[in-house]
Amino acid sequence: MLLASSCTPPAVAPVPLTSTTVTSGNGTSGAATISSNGNVVVFASKATDLTPGADANGDLADVFAYDRTTGVTERITNGNAASGAENNSAAPSPFEEPANVLTTHNAIDVSADGRYVAFTSRATDLTATTTPAGYTNAFRYDRQTHATQLVTAPSGCPVWATIDNMFDQVAISSDGSVVATSRGCSGYDPDGIYANAYFIRIQHPGGAASDFPLPAGVSPFNFMMSGDASVIDITTYPIFGWSRLTVATGSWSAP
Fold first, then answer.
1. Confidence at 142, pLDDT banded by 50, 70, 90
2. Distance CA 49, CA 29 (A)
3. Which of 13, 66, 197, 231 has its C-alpha lying 20 to 30 A from 22's C-alpha?
């Protein structure tokens, strides 16, 4: 287990853009999930007419939250200009075709009460400090304070590897205090052999991060975290199966 210091920049709190009008939208939507209390639906969409005001990023995917108790739709990925982020959100792989950008698994998650939303994004303008370009990162958005925090940054890979982001996914604990994400690394190892390495990162936004390398020879295909953030179950590829991470011990086992 590797311990890393927080890479979280100061949170930025743009004015939320909301709408109480139910509309079918003028673009593709998907990657939806719902809070366990059933009140908040979060999803990604390329639509530009779900909330009032300008949508400067056009066909790029944004993340939205629909509150079933109030009927309000809120755009979460506003960017510093509050008019839409400058790159796709809920799109973990840089190699995906735009048409498939909303079909990814675990690109968005929401806390039990719907307050906190975790999501992936390639945008660089979601926080007050510019996020490095060229990477998919995980963020946490607070629907009460409207603050966005970066909860992962490019790190945790072996010194010989770079992050390629092909399997970035997120999960959030029931109370919203812990975010987990999967990351992929690749490069030439010390023997000159091209290799891959994958790990799960457990992050307390604003606190330290813990990295848990996956067993050799497998990569995360899909994963989910228990509500108390004590256990993470993943499906693996190319060796199809399940692996379970017990966070307290950092050990992997068959579930």
1. very high
2. 12
3. 13
Do residues 57 and 84 make contact, with C-beta atoms less than 8 angstroms apart? yes
The pTM (predicted TM-score) of the whole model is: 0.80
- Of 218, 212, 225, 224, the closest CA to residue 241 belongs to 218
> In the chain, how many H helices and how many E strands?
0, 19
Any residues with CB less than 8 A from the CB of 55 and at least 6 apart, and which? 48, 49, 62, 83, 84
pLDDT single digits (tens) 44-82: 888 877 877 666 666 778 899 999 999 998 988 876 655
pLDDT at 124: 80
What's the token pair of residue 136?
């998919």
Query: Quick one: 146 exposed, middle or buried, by C-beta within 10 A (0-12, 13-18, 19+)?
Result: middle
Separation between Cα atoms, residue 17 and residue 82, nearest integer Å:
8
- Name the token pair of 16: 């939320």
Return the beta strands (E) in the chain as ranges: 2-4, 17-19, 29-34, 40-45, 62-67, 72-75, 108-110, 116-121, 137-142, 147-150, 161-163, 169-172, 179-188, 194-203, 209-213, 219-225, 231-237, 241-246, 251-253
